[in-house]
Amino acid sequence: MNRNIHNLDRYDYELDKKFISSYPIDKRENSKLLIYRNNKIVNSNFKHISNHLPKNSTLFFNDSKVLNGRLFFANKNNAKIEILVTDKNIPRLLNKKSPLLVDAIIGNNKKWKKDEVLEKKIDDLIVSASKNENKVKLEWNKDLIFDKILSKIGIIPLPPYLKRDAEDSDYNNYQTVYSQKKGSIAAPTAGLHFNHNIINEIENKYTIDFFTLHVGLGTFKPITTENIQKHEMHSEEIVITKQNISKIYEANNITAVGTTSLRVLESIYYLGSIIDKQKKEFQITQNVINKRIGISLKESCEQIINYLEIKNINELKFRSKIFIYPGYSFKVCDQLITNFHYPKSTLIILIAAFIGDDWKKVYKFAKENKYRFLSYGDSSLLFRR
Questions:
Q1: Which of 125, 155, 185 is the last residue of a domain?
Q2: Could you read off the pLDDT of 330-356 as tens digits, one per residue?
Q3: Which partner from 55, 212, 260, 354 sits 20 to 30 angstroms from 2, CA to CA?
Q4: What is the pLDDT of residues 177-223, one digit of tens each?
Q5: pTM (2 d.p.)
Q6: How many whole angstroms separate alpha carbon 308 and alpha carbon 304?
Q7: Is the CB of residue 382 less than 8 Å from the CB of residue 336?
Q8: Which residues of 22-49 are buried (b: 16+ CB within 10 A; e: fewer)?
Q9: Which residue among 121, 155, 189 closes a domain?
């Protein structure tokens, strides 16, 4: 294997700010759609995506919903303090009541003294924040669960590269129309182009299914190592059902709607190789892709279904740190629907693994044809090489 494929600079390209969309277009379904297939690239429109998918494909969507996870307080000198809730257990914390300890990133931390209690008041609701070792302690004066507190005082966390504050329209625009389960601090943005009509049209032609990966802080974590293999991935929670596994087992062709869905699908293959009826918790490690797994995808699915049946459960939660980079052998996904990603990111590296060095040709074409990049940008349908 060419060691140069692990050099971070190989996944760099020039991204002028004029290509970064700070806002979505008025109708999400009117985004441009770039199609890469058999080394060829063509232009289309996202509303026509159902015409470009293989006839026998099964599409998998990530139904995670973005939290209002940014909380703003002011210290006694009126300096703004931001608390971004990043706790990996956030889906379970949402139903908890005061007080609550959470993992968080603190903006303007140097202005927040160790013993200072911050307060935010909205009508008769008072929420306080204090430092508690490496966590933030949140308390409130009402008999409300944390989810309701976030709904009242939290702000949706837009990606930092948009360089603007969230506006009222973002609470709709930065959620997929099929989002269901709260837990992400970033949207699975490939799904932002779908409206209900497109989903209905696809469902009439193809098989579709939904699972959950709660997008964590790792989405924004830059790669700082020259050798990409040394980059440390964050662990993300995945929730799958017996139906998911059955549909993967039955599928002849699989399309991942977004890089998060692709990571779920590929993680499921490895889950089947480690699942053990004596265990309750499972994690796909970052280096699992370097291990030889001597089972097929169908055998992996059979192992998972067998585990679910023995435990008499329909749903399984596990965590994954899977890092997909060039040299990876895909086990599940045939097509990928995805946006255009930041240079030197884990996402652009995943694209390079999926279509090889042709990612450079795809991104050059996109810029020449004035595609919009990143979260509120245009879309692509990539057929794996």
A1: 155
A2: 999 999 999 999 999 999 999 999 999
A3: 260
A4: 999 999 999 999 999 999 999 999 999 999 999 999 999 877 667 89
A5: 0.95
A6: 6
A7: yes
A8: eebbeebbebbbbbbbeeebeebebbeb
A9: 155
